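My current task is to audit a protein record that another person submitted. Please read both lines and tell me whether the tokens look consistent with the sequence. Do not assume that whoever made the record got everything right. I have pasted the whole thing underneath without changing anything:

===
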Amino acid sequence: MIKQIPVCRYEQLIPGRGVAVLLPDGSQAAVFRTAKDELYAVGNLDPATGAYVISRGLTGSRGGMPTVASPMLKHVYELASGRCVDGPAGPDPAHRLPTYPVLREAETVYVLEDPAIPRDGNAFVLDDAGAAAGDA
């Protein structure tokens, strides 16, 4: 069964900034609103350091893809796929953030959690009707 975990009201998400949300299983997600008003959710745990800091990262883009840079060692992750596109030694396939579907329903933003939804980089955003709006 899909769980909708409320994050906050949409207008409370400042473009370019992240917020952390505690998930029912005890893990954390980092939710971002981009300058283009796209929503993404990735794991908040930095795989390079073991610190829950991704929500405090610097957002940007690489090759047109929205990214977040960890505030610790500056690894850069794609928000859509969770893959590490740059780090101290370049791209690092050993480091990857889990991704979560995000839903904006009315003015509330939710992270969706479902064991059937892959968390290996297959991020997508659902529209108000719950249909996949394509890869985010």
Summary: Confidence is low (pLDDT under 50) at residues 120-136.
